[in-house]
Design a protein that fits this description.
Pfam families: UstYa
Number of helices: 5
Mean pLDDT: 84
Strand order of the largest sheet: 1-2
Low-confidence stretches: none
Pathway: Mycotoxin biosynthesis
Family: Belongs to the ustYa family.
Number of domains: 1
Helix content: 40-55%
Oligomer: single chain
Order of helices and strands: HHHHEEH
Structural class: mainly alpha
Distance between the termini: 13 Å
Number of strands: 2
InterPro entries: UstYa-like
Length: 110
């Protein structure tokens, strides 16, 4: 057989990597070495590795958003009287795939 990866796992990895690299998380993940080892987070010469990996992840997420275009309508309303103008209402219900079912299958079959 051929080695493969399920795309959702790769995209979740990318989201997690970008989350870890945010300014409010960076010190924690440098210390604990999650996704990258502590030496990679701390070594100046490895910044290019982290930057290249982050750029790859942003590009993968961009392609996913553009290829699986979500054209649901996001309504606007006056949610906060302190805001100037209507705000987007993101809490709309949607029908999602059953991720838990997928994850159980993945754990059983990896």
């Amino acid at each position: 057989g051929y080695p493969v990866e399920i795309q959702v796992n790769h995209l979740l990895h990318c989201l997690n990597l970008l989350r870890q690299g945010q300014w409010y998380n960076i010190d924690y993940y440098r210390k604990h070495g999650v996704s990258f080892g502590p030496s990679q987070w701390n070594a100046v010469e490895n910044h290019t590795i982290i930057e290249a990996h982050s750029a790859h992840c942003v590009e993968q997420l961009r392609q996913y958003v553009m290829c699986d275009t979500d054209i649901r309508v996001v309504p606007y309303g006056d949610l906060d009287p302190n805001e100037d103008g209507p705000q987007p209402i993101f809490g709309q219900q949607k029908q999602c795939r059953n991720f838990d079912s997928y994850w159980r299958w993945f754990q059983k079959n990896q």
